[in-house]
Design goal:
By secondary structure, the chain is an alpha+beta fold. The protein is about 20% helix and about 40% strand. It folds into two domains: about 30 residues; about 150 residues, Immunoglobulin-like (Sandwich).
C-alpha cells in the first residue's frame, strides 16, 4: 500500500472513532423528558352576568438529562355545538407570570432535572360565555363536561415534536365554581 492509502484509512478510522465517541456522549448525556402534571383543581378567575373564566395550573416538568425548549402550547376546546350549544368556549394556555393580550405562547427553556428551572407553570384558561340570550346561570344549569386538548410542541436533542394532554372540566366542577345547580335532562 502506498502512503496515501494509509493516510486515507487513518482519516476514515479517526472519523469513525469520532462518530462513535459522539454517539456515546449523546447516549450518556441523555435527552429531555418533559411531562405535564395536572393535579391542581379548576379555579374561578372571574365572572359576570354572561361569562366566567376558569383556570387550572399545569406544571411542565423536565425529568430528563437535557434541557428542552417548549416552543408552543395551545389549549383547544372539544365542546362542539352539536353536543351543547348553550355555551361558547374560548381557551388559551398562558405561562404563569407572563400574561399576553394576543394569546401567543412565547417559547421558553426548561433546564434538565435538578438544574433550576427544571419546570414551568402554565395556566389552562377557558372563558365560558352564555349563548342564545340565556343568562350564565341558565346556560350552566344544563352544562355538560368540558373536554379540552392541550397540544404542545417541544424540542431537545431529538427533532421537534408534538404531545397532547386531555384536560376535562366536569359539569359538576363548573357548576360548583359558578354556584349553579345542575339540571340533568
Amino acid at each position: 500500500m502506498t502512503l496515501i492509502c494509509y493516510i486515507v484509512l487513518g482519516l476514515l478510522g479517526l472519523a469513525l472513532l469520532g462518530a462513535l465517541l459522539s454517539w456515546a456522549y449523546i447516549c450518556h448525556a441523555g435527552n429531555a423528558d418533559v411531562v405535564v402534571l395536572q393535579d391542581a383543581p379548576w379555579e374561578l378567575a372571574s365572572r359576570d352576568d354572561k361569562s366566567m373564566v376558569i383556570k387550572k395550573k399545569l406544571d411542565f416538568v423536565n425529568r430528563g438529562k437535557s434541557c428542552s425548549v417548549i416552543v408552543d402550547a395551545i389549549l383547544h376546546s372539544e365542546l362542539p355545538y352539536e353536543q351543547y350549544d348553550g355555551i361558547e368556549v374560548r381557551c388559551k394556555a398562558e405561562r404563569d407570570g407572563y400574561p399576553r393580550e394576543d394569546d401567543y405562547f412565547e417559547a421558553v427553556i426548561i433546564e434538565h432535572h435538578g438544574k433550576a428551572p427544571d419546570h414551568i407553570e402554565v395556566w389552562a384558561i377557558a372563558k365560558l360565555t352564555a349563548r342564545k340570550g340565556m343568562s350564565l346561570e341558565e346556560a350552566l344549569a344544563h352544562m355538560v363536561d368540558l373536554p379540552m386538548d392541550l397540544v404542545w410542541q417541544y424540542s431537545s436533542r431529538d427533532p421537534i415534536f408534538y404531545r397532547k394532554e386531555r384536560l376535562v372540566a366536569t359539569a359538576e366542577e363548573i357548576a360548583a365554581l359558578a354556584g349553579v345547580t345542575l339540571v340533568r335532562d
